[in-house]
Amino acid sequence: MPEQTKPEPANTPETESPDARPRRRQARGERRIAQLLDAAANVFCTTGYTAASTNAIAREAGVSPGTLYQFFPNKEAIAIELGDRLLHQWRDSHGAALVAANLDLPLEQLLEAVLDPLITFNEENPAFAVLMHGPDIPGRITQEFDTVHAGLLERIEEILTGYLPDTPAAEVHRVSTMTFAVFKAGLDLILAHEGAERAAYTKELKTIMFRYLQPLFCETDASIHTP
Question: Is the pTM of this model over 0.85?
Answer without folding.
Answer: no
